[in-house]
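Side project, low priority. Logging it here so it doesn't get lost.
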Amino acid sequence: MTVPSHMTLQSGPGKQGGVVLLIALIVLIAMSLIGISMIRQGSSAQLIVGNLAFKEGSNAEADFGVESARRWLVSNSNALYNSSAGYVANGLATTQAFDPYSYNAWQATAEAGVEYVIHRLCASTGSVTTTPTSENQCIVARETSSKEGTSYGNNSTPELFPYYRITVRVTGPRNVRSYIQALMY
């Protein structure tokens, strides 16, 4: 049987151009680059989430610092006319110059890395006054109730409570510092 010439079988592999191999390599390189960028994005996201966790932890610890400062104010109510360690009795005079980054007289708390300083918002040390001609003007809250006020016939003067600004510094992991302030009277 004779085979027509247009149907001749070749005995070896035919000549291949290698185009498929080139396309496969290009696709493989593109997929590798996409994979590497996804890994880097995941690492960045983990760093951001970690930093947010550190920040939330610092805020929780700062609440502990505010509470420690409040307890100090309550337990030292007889010594609030003069400055001491972690307490500034003439806070209005020093408020303009207060720089928490360079301040170095922080009061440590029982919690590691949490420190505070309290500024009494008065112009100078000594007793609290609010009269315009007074030497020691303070920013104060006047404590009265409707039962004790003039509407019920009681003409007594209300008690004055100066405001206190509490600044808390929290040094957290990786030496990150957070500063939080609270006002109370």
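Brief comment: Confidence is low (pLDDT under 50) at residues 149-153.
Revisit when time allows.
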